[in-house]
Amino acid sequence: RAKAAGRGTYRFFEPEMDTRLQERRLLERDLRQALAEGQLEVHYQPLVECNSEALLGFEALVRWRHPERGQVPPSEFIPVAEESGLIIQLGEWVMRTACREAAKWPGDQRIAINLSPVQFRHADLAHKILTIVEQTGLAPERLELEITEGVLIEDTEHTLATLSLLKSAGIRVSLDDFGTGYSSLSYLQRFPFDKIKIDRSFVWEMGRNADSMAIVRSVIALGRSLRITVIAEGVETPEQLALLQSEQCDQVQGFLLGRPVPARDLTQLMTDAETAAAE
Ligand code: C2E
Ligand code: MG
Ligand code: MG
Ligand code: MG
User: Fold this and answer.
1) Are 15 and 1 in contact (CB under 8 A)?
2) Model pLDDT for residues 33-53, shown as the tens digit of each residue
3) Which residues are near ligand 1 (CB < 6 Å)?
4) Where would I find the EAL domain in this sequence (predicted)?
5) Among residues 183, 181, 195, which one has the least CA distance to residue 223?
6) Which ipTM did the prediction report?
7) Is 252 exposed, middle or buried (0-12, 13-18, 19+ CB in 10 A)?
8) Which ligand has its closest atom nearest to the C-alpha of 112?
């Protein structure tokens, strides 16, 4: 850019940085609008019992169809939402929408909802969640909150207090993307998680890489001895499912068992599951 010319090395780096910043700013502006205009949607992906393949619940995953760009993946807009603070509003919207939806289901399937570390910076997160649970009439025992290690890196005391409060109300807490962070094991010691979600990178490699298989096997054993439910994410093939069944993993999630679907497709899914269970 002309403005930067003559400022030595900056000239080489600025245009690229500038484009990225600009891109983020545009995305932030559009996301703000999306929240205001209801362009966001929640999709639901089945959580399934590993051996019986019985339907246990669903994970809520936010979706954004941008009017010009089409579907923008969460991996692109969640970071923007986190940096801009919009995640507070977005997270609350997902929580309210998913709890309201789950409260209408005929069965008592679980609803799992992702929380961003940024949401924990606000003092009233627990109060907000408890209020939504109460207002939507969802039994708190049906709610599972998914957090990643990032949550526990920040203000640990406050985070643990928040999680404990939610747990004492009957809400369950899962450690998401297990194995991808720096100190997953120490987190298991610091907080009584109800569930460990083995990251899909391990599941993906399982059949071809002996080390990944060993890791998956160890995490399943770890869960068993700590009495924590273990779920494997990203199960895509019958071979992966068979391996996890032979290792007696508790639960599975992945495209093989079901892709994330909009709320309007859930009734059919749940009816099919009931029919299958009755057979
Ligand atoms: P996550 O919580 O680990 O969610 C699982 C991701 O894996 C989802 O991606 C899901 O669509 C994808 N997935 C499920 N099964 C398979 C499979 O068999 N193969 C493959 N390749 N992928 C599979 P998605 O929906 O793109 O979300 C990505 C991440 O964005 C989530 O990872 C979560 O960290 C975040 N996210 C999504 N929705 C929300 C939300 O409402 N709030 C917050 N804070 N984060 C969210
Ligand atoms: Mg998750
Ligand atoms: Mg995950
Ligand atoms: Mg993930």
Assistant:
1) yes
2) 999 999 999 999 999 999 999
3) 45, 61-62, 73-75, 78, 91, 94, 114-116, 146, 176-177, 200, 233-236, 253-255, 260
4) 24-274
5) 195
6) 0.98
7) buried
8) 2
